[in-house]
Amino acid sequence: MRIEENYIKHGYFWLPENEDIKIPGILSISDGGRAELEIIGSFGGKNDFNYDDMNLKRIIGLVEDDGLIILNKCCYIQKYISLNENITKSKISSDQVFAGLESIDNEDITFNQFSFSVDCLDEWVNESAFKINHEFEDNTININYNLPDKKCFALDNGMKLDINFCYSSPKIPVIKEVKITQRTFFTLKSEEPCNIDLFISLAHKISHLISFAIGETVSIKNVSARKSIENDESIQYYPQETKIFPNV
Question: Among 11, 33, 133, 189, whose Cα sits 20 to 30 Å from the Cα of 21?
Fold first, then answer.
């Protein structure tokens, strides 16, 4: 997975079965999706001398900016236990990180929508929505931007695939530079909630298709997901996006 800026967050972390013990730590995610959590001590405390099973199914955290966070498929890289009063640190790797969740449960994490982009997608889709008009006599340049319509496709597995477009607006006040950036991304949609591993598998297949089409290797990036929820009026809505950092 392509990560253009390293993700580093401070917070408190705990195991789902032991919410009363929260340990301070630093979560860092580097390019490629490699997630590493550094904590003080270990989740088992001073008497945790079990080195036979270094795996942890899930870790929950509360971090700056992104709030609730889940680390799935975890494993101790380094596990240190202090026999005196010295401070020791342990390091834990995670294959999946979910940031910005609205709530936490102990069930499998499922979503209805999965959005992602890949390298060179804008060039491959080649959908320009800019029109530039020079008025030389009036010393004027007019730039018009109209957001392109999304493109929708039905997949054989019952899902839908959309090619979507979004843009960033110029910062205000504008003094000497105006910048509008268009970004293209895919969205996989399923009526029934699906496990994140299924979405990631499909995203890999799509990225391989792009690689074959353009003749170079591309990486998945900007991954997020949503899960539909029914409110009191039985109307489905999609809450805030959950950022996902898979180690792929």
Answer: 33
